[in-house]
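Example 341, ligand TLP.
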Amino acid sequence: MIDLRSDTVTKPTPAMRRAMMEAEVGDDVYGEDPTVNRLERRAAEVAGKEAALFVPTGTMGNAIAIKLLTEHGQEVIADSRAHILDWELGMVAWFSGCLVRAIQTENGILTWDEIRRVIRAPSPFWAPTGLIAIENTHNMHGGTVYQLAAIQEIADEAHHRGVRVHMDGARVFNAATATGVPVRDIVAPVDTVMFCLSKGLGAPAGSMLCGPAELIAKGRLYRKRLGGGMRQVGVLAAACLIALEEMPKRLGDDHANAKFLSEGLARIPGIQIAPEKTATNIVVFDVSGTGLAPAEISARLKRRSVLMNGINERQMRAVTHYDVDRAACSAALEAIAEAVE
Ligand code: TLP
């Protein structure tokens, strides 16, 4: 099977499996797991933040960040296809008691000019803005990337108004590879960042929430409340350390394969995509011109040993990662051409 459904499907590398077997562990709820402590210190260093918290999933990391940075009854500004809005089961409302003020964008990238129009100061009539959440890279818009100046402008203007900024940086290492800007510089303007080690970086599970020490200490309590107080979890942290130190180097290969896929897709009749916009490892393309629904194309591809999902009634998504090489991408393109013929 050539699995292009997501980079979440990556399996731990042999080096990760060895490190997991040999990991030194302790009870992390007592703060006694040396491998988790090492991971949290390294993640904070890499992100250039005071502290980091190991969380089992990106969803939990985002949920804790939003809880830390908002009060009940506030609004969170996000783009209209943000993961926190569309794919986290209404967690912003369920856990933090906030509304999402969604902004429709062309590419998932918010600008201060768009935010300026919807940001709200406290008033007796409406819910004030507590937080701006930016997603970098942007998943559903095809792995699009923020320019550093745009993040800086949003954060400066937000902070000036007492509004905080969280980055859903599930794939911020892909953003760093695409722009050549180190992760610590990309996230310097924002209050908190969540990044995933379990996607393109290959760890079997695990994400990090990074930010000011005081906030992260409180976040540890929210993690426990959410049922995320894990025990001898150094076995996972050992794999995550390899993901953090070794795996970012090879993300450029995934980006080149995604570009190859999008260029190939653009040549298939009925498929619409602008390959020049593929900047990282996610390819989102419109199949409505084929006359087939994404679910039907998925089923036909599965019979040809290719896994790929629709993300709505017009679009499908292919995500490259280290378990699919150039030959697999070539074979996938052939299968798609046959499936939509
Ligand atoms: N994304 C998954 C699905 O949930 C859609 C995927 O296959 O891409 N932020 C972003 C931008 C994400 O893409 C994801 C996962 C998360 C947060 C949540 O991470 P997990 O799955 O670890 O909770």
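Summary: The chain has a mean pLDDT of 98.
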